Amino acid sequence: MHSEIEEFTVCDVCGFAEARTRYGSRAYGKGKDLLVIENVPMVSCPSCGTSYLTSLTLKEIDRIKRDRKTVAVTKSVKVASFSV
Predict the structure, then answer these.
(1) Residue 38 phi, psi (nearest 5)
(2) How many CB atoms lie within 10 A of CB 82?
(3) What is the per-residue pLDDT for 82?
(4) Contact 40, 64 (CB under 8 A)
(5) Cα–Cα distance for residue pair 37/57, rounded to 1 Å
(6) How many CB atoms lie within 10 A of CB 19?
(7) CB-count exposure of residue 45 (10 Å: 0-12, 13-18, 19+)
(8) Coil, helix or strand for 42?
(9) Cα gap 57→76, rounded to integer Å
(10) What class, spelled out in words, does domain 7-71 have in CATH?
(11) Which of 12, 26, 64, 67 qualifies as a FRET site for 38, CA 20 to 30 Å off?
(12) Which residues have CB under 8 Å from 72's CB, separation 6+?
């Protein structure tokens, strides 16, 4: 779990010293193979507008996807489709 105190880092794109670390959910796969990973840290830069995942975060996501049978729990969720 992450801290409720806002975290800052240096943006890898523009070098801005107060890029923010934000946390959210990411979905991978679809249907019966859908995996939702919660509390994924993402760097968001208010200076250049870029948002990205760090290499450490991507490695952890790969590990979670690889070990999903032992690290994930099954939850029932409502799913809606966006339509124009």
Answers:
(1) -95, 160
(2) 4
(3) 92
(4) no
(5) 11
(6) 24
(7) buried
(8) strand
(9) 26
(10) alpha beta
(11) 12
(12) 35, 64
Please answer whether residues 15 and 24 qualify as being in contact, where contact means their C-beta atoms are separated by less than 8 angstroms. Answer: no
Tell me the C-alpha distance between 30 and 13, whole Å.
31
pLDDT for the residue 2 = 58
> Which letter does DSSP use for residue 6 in this model?
P
**And the tokens for 11?**
């943006």
pTM of the model: 0.82
- Residues ≥6 apart with Cβ < 8 Å to 18: 8, 46, 47
15-28, pLDDT tens digit by residue? 999 999 999 999 99
Domain residue ranges in the chain = 7-71
Residue given tokens 């010293």 in the structure block: 17
Token digits of residue 52: 């990205």
Task: Give me the pLDDT at residue 4, please.
Answer: 58
